[in-house]
Amino acid sequence: MKVVASLAFAAAALASSLPAAAQFAKPEDALKYRQSVMFVMSQHFGRLGSMANGKAPYDAKAAVDSAEVVATLSHLPWPAFGPAYKDLEPSKAKPEIFTEQARFKERNEKLQEATATLVAAAKTSSLDNLKPAFGDTAKACKACHDDFRNQ
Ligand code: ASC
Question: pLDDT by residue (tens digit) across 132-150?
């Protein structure tokens, strides 16, 4: 029992020290993963945008649901932009992502902060609160895209 427990501990310690590369069975999976996350995030962010811009009726519950999806997804794609995944095609990722990982990480964290505020704003059930929080999140998306994504 003691041996089993210490083996399990060793396995867990090893797993947690593995590089992010180990999260994906093959490099192509990292590409598919980050693009899929970005796609779903953009779908839900788009729904919020439609409400914020008056193109769709404001639905407070739907806004919270989408904001929560966006906030959750804002934590996911970044390990799939690790150095092991720099030469995958087709991709709009600029090479700077892989050479300026600290600056990229800063941008990722700004998005996470903005989306947390977006969730809080959506939860007030006020379109007037949703609008500026949507705008701030869009700016965080754009700041990163301007620096790190090809058109
Ligand atoms: C979206 C989407 C993006 C961002 C960006 C915000 O809905 O697909 O890439 O918002 O346009 O500036």
Answer: 999 999 999 999 999 999 9
> What is the model's pLDDT at position 135?
98
Amino acid symbol at 114: A
Nearest to 62 by CA among 76, 75, 43, 77: 43
Q: Where are the beta strands (DSSP E) in 46-104?
A: none
Phi first, then psi: what are they for 149, rounded to 5°? -125, 130
CA–CA distance, 6 with 10 (Å, rounded to integer): 6
Torsion of CA 81, 86, 88, 92, to 10 degrees: 70
Ligand 1 atom nearest 46 alpha carbon:
7
Residue 137 CA: nearest ligand 1 atom is 6
Q: Tens digits of per-residue pLDDT, 61-92?
A: 999 999 999 999 999 999 999 999 999 999 99
Q: Quick check: pTM over 0.90?
A: no
For ligand 1, atom 1: residue with the closest CA = 42
CA 41 to ligand 1 centroid distance, Å: 9
Q: Check pocket membership of 138 for ligand 1, CB cut-off 6 A.
A: yes
